[in-house]
């Protein structure tokens, strides 16, 4: 009986050592997961700053679009004035040709401005899409972090219970 008890005690001691090693590994994993959580929260802080940056870019792009639209309207008014002037003052065909050239140049500028407006709008939409994707990524990472934390807590609890039981 004593030999059996000694063997059993040795087995339990060995099993206890294995459990202690597993607990240390679990604690190391927990520390690593904590570090990962910290890294993820830092990355979400970066995502928040990127989101802020995106909103600033959107505001900047919007103000630029408004400025380009005002310039466009001003150029259209100038074109209309030139057309009116060309109709009322047919004094010389040379002046008419010059006005027509200027009209064409202004039309090209308007077209360029309209292209710029379209590009700005597309850029604005791209930034909004990027912002939405970043927000979705942040939410997904938060869900993963919560899941990892719950798993870690559960593992720690199980190991403590098992250790207490032993």
TrEMBL record:
Entry coiled-coil feature ranges: 58-151
Record bears the keyword Cytoplasm: no
Gene Ontology biological-process annotations: cytoplasmic microtubule organization; cytoskeleton-dependent intracellular transport
Name of the protein this chain belongs to: DAPLE protein
One GO CC annotation: centrosome
Organism placement in taxonomy: Eukaryota, Metazoa, Chordata, Craniata, Vertebrata
Keywords assigned: Coiled coil
PANTHER family reported in the protein's UniProt record: HOOK PROTEINS, PROTEIN DAPLE
